[in-house]
């Protein structure tokens, strides 16, 4: 078997990568198929799969290929035939009638049959308890059940095959998904299986080989939990225009020797209602770590101290939003961060006067319920002022007047809907944060992990982005957000292996960010 053209390993450190929706990928596939002889692309896809199988499980020698009703199954059948030819022990399980396969996949089935590949309908019912096939955790499983053609929740034989693949993965077997983990929606990253099915009824792969294009769903919502390592093989087909982008690592701006603190901009943090003052100090401290020249912290709790002994470099200011317009007009401002209901009083002057405004948490909740504040936010689009909203899914749902489930059902669309409604750039937080901005392709962030699911990490992001923005006031909200979100997640990735899944405390996150060893 001669195999050339290694797939590309897609990871957080080597982006940016163009992403293509199912519709864009299918259009590309149709154009490519029209230009080559039948089976050319499917043979190339199967070859790429077989090659990656050899690379990720070189000692396995045994493979179970799970074949679904479409051309994704055809790719699997080609790979099965090639690995059989290589001397591997191969078992193909089919979930439907091979006679009903589409033309290319049917031909792949005939070729596999002619080559003597063992193939049979997937065992169902009681005889299918536990992983079927070769009873060994080293057996490689290839998921060729469903790809781009997924339209609805897998049921029947497909759902049972997915459950078998999950069991194999849970037993430690490598699982290579072709194009997409079966059951995962290519655009949204939602697992479409029955609500009560484990892991949403979608395959959990150790590796996914995406063909022709990278699909957004691999990187957001449940995508990262299902895809494992992601590889791309373009099968020699040039990518068309992208619908979205997987963010790449940003460059650090070096500091000229002649700079002083006044060269690096001012940040003011307005937040911290009674009982939540720490949130404002955390954001302020992150802004200082990001390199802002002067950082003011203005707690909304009138009783709060105006000095944080742990951070003497931060300056407390009572009611900073009542400063003269000339002061408001020069700073980068973060508003939210534990602001409670008290934040409502601060928002009108900030929305009216500040050139760069990051709105987080309670500031977003206040805006969601106050049409007057919404009007002030939308009015900023007619000036040079720029705004960044950093909602988590519940805050996004409040701003859109829908449910959190609706936001999570299509995170990219939800972020774009917020941009359209408020005219601001948006970071929709969560696994695979989405950064959307006026006039720009949506970006999905590839860094970060569940260690960030801890108190205060959102305040740190808001402060960090403001700290970067204060130093680059000419940058757009979207640009600075993409950079900050990548770095914030990367800091958690550096922490995660050492901490073995422990949450990352917000203070520790700031220290990792401040080291700037983020790569
Ligand atoms: N045609 C070709 O030569 C090529 C095909 N490719 C592969 O083909 C795939 C796309 O092929 P298809 O468009 O056939 O799509 P799929 O292979 O994903 O399967 C679609 C089929 O499954 C059915 N289906 C979808 N959801 C179902 C559900 N929940 N329950 C039961 N049946 C369901 C559809 O009705 C359709 O018959 C790509 O993901 C990729 O793996 C690529 O390798 C490029 C080359
Ligand atoms: K698949």
Strands, helices and their partners?
Elements: E1 8-10, E2 17-19, H1 22-34, H2 40-56, E3 62-67, H3 71-85, E4 89-94, H4 103-114, E5 119-121, E6 140-144, H5 156-170, E7 175-178, E8 207-211, H6 223-227, E9 229-233, E10 244-246, E11 266-271, H7 277-290, E12 294-299, E13 315-316, H8 325-328, E14 332-336, H9 343-353, E15 356-360, H10 361-369, H11 371-379, E16 386-390, H12 393-400, H13 404-409, H14 411-422, E17 425-428, E18 434-436, E19 443-444, H15 457-471, H16 477-499, H17 506-515
Helix pairs in contact: 2-3, 3-4, 7-15, 7-17, 9-11, 10-11, 10-12, 12-14, 15-16
The site of potassium ion has 11 residues, from strand 6 and strand 7.
Structural features:
Rossmann fold, 2 domains, binds ligand NAX, binds potassium ion, UDP-N-acetylmuramoyl-L-alanine:D-glutamate ligase, 17 helices, eleven-stranded mixed β-sheet, alpha/beta, 38% helix, elongated
CATH class call of the largest domain: Alpha Beta
Number of separate strands: 19
Overall pLDDT metric: 93
Strand order of the largest sheet: 2-10-19-18-17-16-15-14-11-12-13
Strand portion: 15-25%
InterPro entries: Carbohydrate_kinase_pred_CS (IPR017953), CARKD (IPR000631), Nnr (IPR030677), Ribokinase-like (IPR029056), YjeF_N_dom (IPR004443), YjeF_N_dom_sf (IPR036652)
Family: Belongs to the NnrE/AIBP family. In the N-terminal section; belongs to the NnrE/AIBP family.
Protein name: Bifunctional NAD(P)H-hydrate repair enzyme
Subunit structure: Homotetramer.
